[in-house]
Amino acid sequence: MWNYDCDDPLVSALPQASFSSSSELSSSHGPGFARLNRRDGAGGWSPLVSNKYQWLQIDLGERMEVTAVATQGGYGSSNWVTSYLLMFSDSGWNWKQYRQEDSIWGFSGNANADSVVYYRLQPSIKARFLRFIPLEWNPKGRIGMRIEVFGCAYRSEVVDLDGKSSLLYRFDQKSLSPIKDIISLKFKTMQSDGILLHREGPNGDHITLQLRRGRLFLLINSGEAKLPSTSTLVNLTLGSLLDDQHWHSVLIQHLGKQVNFTVDEHRHHFHAQGEFNLMNLDYEGNVSFSCSQPQSMPVTFLSSRSYLALPDFSGEEEVSATFQFRTWNKAGLLLFSELQLISGGILLFLSDGKLKSNLYQPGKLPSDITAGVGLNDGQWHSVSLSAKKNHLSVAVDGQMASAALLLGPEQIYSGGTYYFGGCPDKSFGSKCKSPLGGFQGCMRLISISGKVVDLISVQQGSLGNFSDLQIDSCGISDRCLPNYCEHGGECSQSWSTFHCNCTNTGYRGATCHNSVYEQSCEAYKHRGNTSGFYYIDSDGSGPLEPFLLYCNMTETAWTIIQHNSSDLTKVRNTNPENPYAGFFEYVASMEQLQATINRAEHCEQEFTYYCKKSRLVNKQDGTPLSWWVGRTNETQTYWGGSSPDLQKCTCGLEGNCIDSQYYCNCDADRNEWTNDTGLLAYKEHLPVTKIVITDTGRLHSEAAYKLGPLLCRGDRSFWNSASFDTEASYLHFPTFHGELSADVSFFFKTTASSGVFLENLGITDFIRIELRSPTVVTFSFDVGNGPFEISVQSPTHFNDNQWHHVRVERNVKEASLQVDQLTPKTQPAPADGHVLLQLNSQLFVGGTATRQRGFLGCIRSLQLNGMTLDLEERAQVTPEVQPGCRGHCSSYGKLCRNGGKCRERPIGFFCDCTFSAYTGPFCSNEISAYFGSGSSVIYNFQENYLLNKNSSSHAASFHGDMKLSREMIKFSFRTTRTPSLLLFVSSFYKEYLSVIIAKNGSLQIRYKLNKYQEPDVVNFDFKNMADGQLHHIMINREEGVVFIEIDGNTRRQVHLSSGTEFSAVKSLVLGRILEHSDVDQETALAGAQGFTGCLSAVQLSHVAPLKAALHPSHPDPVTVTGHVTESSCMAQPGTDATSRERTHSFADHSGTIDDREPLANAIKSDSAVIGGLIAVVIFILLCITAIAVRIYQQKRLYKRSEAKRSENVDSAEAVLKSELNIQNAVNENQKEYFF
């Protein structure tokens, strides 16, 4: 919160001695002249040299709360600072860098000498000392500063604890509030572990605040359970790197069951189980009420080029150094010590988080000593190195590792220079080596040969030398706090950045923001997917997790969500005082279900209530006796087929209840089984979560119920679109809030060469997505670091009036743009730059705030952070913008296969499979049939061509005396029988085409286009085609030229001699030829035998005879004789046919059950079931005995195996499987058994 009474100027009244600096250009440029708006001396502070190691320091005399700072340049000069860092401290050492809320470290400074740049500090600083560190300055001048600091006095009681002491407070129970408790404290420490606070209540409840490894843990036990359990124990973690000897604030608020836990700026809310409350003051041990200031001067190695070079003055004949370090990086040089008598030196470095040390000598392979593990955890670790004569030892955190060095006669004597953290440039001529690069992190307590290094002397330039260091400050920060990895992504970090591991989250991207799954079955369908189980993420990049459900891809995409009680459930012995309640739990949470239902065009759930003297409503007073509850948690008394306000059943709406006095069959209260069945289709109440039944307590009273899965179809968001008619037209929506993570996705189609899809402005921040040119889509944005632009260029034009998909994402790590399947483009975010996207204007879609450069065309399915904008609703009230958009087939038409035609719909499209031999949503499901012995399918083009000249059937192109000069024939087959007739086309003039398998297994195609000539025969005898494998045939005739393709690889082109035209086509026969035909002998033999096996996807031009026979859509001139059943030809011999099927066997809707016998044996009395089972068992045993006797009698007559056949569709494949085992060995005269 901003303290409006805390803005007094604090610097102007300070004495001269309160100002200090790293250096001064002259006595008139000293730090005491750095007061804002003063012209004393030279009019401001300037250092002797202008570099990034200079600083200006203010001592406020005591701890103050600082709420703002202001800067100016040197009066009337060209000296001003353009950016600077602000540091603060309680003691004048161990400085901490001030960090703004959205992670900016530096402040922008001045653009001239005299104007004042003012910054509010949110949060404020509580400190005695402030230090300004210039980073950049006017290149035509030098560093020059005048400053002011605003704030007020800050006083608080302090206590100093030494690890063995404690402070005890005893509560006055009367003063305790039972409703609200607040604990607030600030602490600072150099220790990473310790208990800050522990409180025990009278009921065994306790609360503990504990520091572990620099993180703060809050443990709460409500004391309700005898043993700790997950419900009574709360363990929360907040904060990081809290052992930095700087003040950290802690706030615990307990209101009822709600607890807020805050550490510095990070907050956690949770709901506590049970009761507890939070704390007369006493102390023991060494407690002082002032704060000690332990001196420890850290140094920060800011980059991989940083180093600290120190001489060895000890004169000892050994190398000896100790220090502490902390870092996030896995690798980097910690120390290189030069050796005087031996070329080379001793290396101490981090590698993969382990400490390694060796003796480096040019031309020799080093042998490493390894110590420690996981040392890149951000904690302080102590290291000591000792090398004397030919022995080297290293200790990490007190654990020693040592080795003898094989040096021969040479021995280690004292080194020349110690290089900490890295090596200087080669131009300095040092021997220093850094195999894994420099160290980025902090060091402290550095000593050489037992003597502590004075870093102030280093800073002043009187000891050693350095580069790119920050002395007297540890600049480490935890980049995983706050954790920007979304959806459970794991955060890991290095010194300069963080990384999100999105494995097993269901999300991807730099911050695990973008879902890998589609938002609906409709979206999967339009990627060309078939029926199956899919993960759905209903809110895209929103907080809801993806879940698994079944997508049934019919003409529309049905979403099928199962629950845990799909079986029939019987209910007895209930009354209003003792009701029955059945609960339904779904495979998804209620929030996931709600998001799925909201997206759908329509949802329904079939509910059946079976009743025998069990009513739904009390006829006397109209009170409900049974009811159900949906996701709104409200009682519903309407039943399947009725709308919510009518409270009727299906029969009441249709007027066919068994008793016309009532609106439900069950309310007739008959002593016999009946039911009320219907679809619950009011979306806002679905799914059903509970059913309550109260009327099964009377004599002979029973009920049962069955609830189907939740079925939803379509996706309103996927097709939600708007058409923009002019460049000045646009839709406007509320401001887009995507401060840390923003993703925008949509489809567009246009014929225009450019236009802005979307724009949202802030004061300086903005986002814009536009078609820059016919081949370029551009995403531009600014989050306070200056404008950035990302473009994707396409090799083809985007303005082709087809749908194109755009997806942009911006997060704290990067921005990305993807268009269609083109390579995505990314732009990394600048290190330590602004991260918050702050917008405040309306969101413009299809245009801009200036009404210029607008988009002409259609935008569809616009989603911002997973939420769909309703373009159609807004377009209905906006001039020059039309709701909806036509023309989906230009983009999605390619999904319609095998001759299917794409047809437009007001919402979306569908594939018309009328003239295709296939069915399914994309005309990709082949229609196959098993043909039994002697069976046939005959498609009659016209019974008598003279009577059918005006026919309007879809055999219209085969009219009477019209000449057929071309045809395309495609089909697949599988058989083991020879000879076989696969396909026969005849005409009224004794012309024909036959496709047969001859007795020797060769495939023959016979064309007779002139009744006076012998047929043309094309023979394929390269293999036995009756081998039980699936074969694909394509025949394409253009007049006298025939092109034939077998199995996609064998091709032949032949020229016919018998003619070029079919005259008056009569019929197409699959299987056995039943009527006498004037054909050649081979065709006649095959025609008499017919076909036994599987035929699939048979098509003659646009006629599909199998489809007409098995899926009749209107009266077709087709005749089926014998045993022809639908069956898959895909299954290979010896494999389960269903294992190759992708589609799962979920019904679109539950099947209907007869009213009078609703449940077969399912809800008859138990005794009837048991009696029935006994009867069935006896009958089966008798059948088996009779069959065994019959088989024994026939055994002597047959020496070959019998092929068992079934008329059941599911076992049709068994015929082919058994035939494969006895290839062509079955005799024509053998008898067949049907079991």
From TrEMBL:
Q: Which InterPro entries match?
A: ConA-like_dom_sf, EGF, FA58C, Fibrinogen-like_C, Fibrinogen_a/b/g_C_dom, Galactose-bd-like_sf, Laminin_G, Neurexin-related_CASP
Q: Which GO terms describe its cellular component?
A: membrane
A GO BP entry: cell adhesion
Q: Where is the Laminin G domain?
A: 297-474, 720-885, 936-1129
**Domain of life assignment:** Eukaryota
Q: Where found? A: Membrane
* Annotated ranges, domain F5/8 type C: 6-152
Question: Keyword annotations for this protein?
Answer: Cell adhesion, Disulfide bond, EGF-like domain, Glycoprotein, Membrane, Repeat, Signal, Transmembrane, Transmembrane helix
Q: Where is the Fibrinogen C-terminal domain?
A: 512-563
Task: Tell me the protein's name.
Answer: Contactin associated protein family member 4
Q: What organism is this sequence from?
A: Gorilla gorilla gorilla
Which lineage ranks, top first, belong to the organism behind this chain?
Answer: Eukaryota, Metazoa, Chordata, Craniata, Vertebrata
Q: Which gene encodes it?
A: CNTNAP4
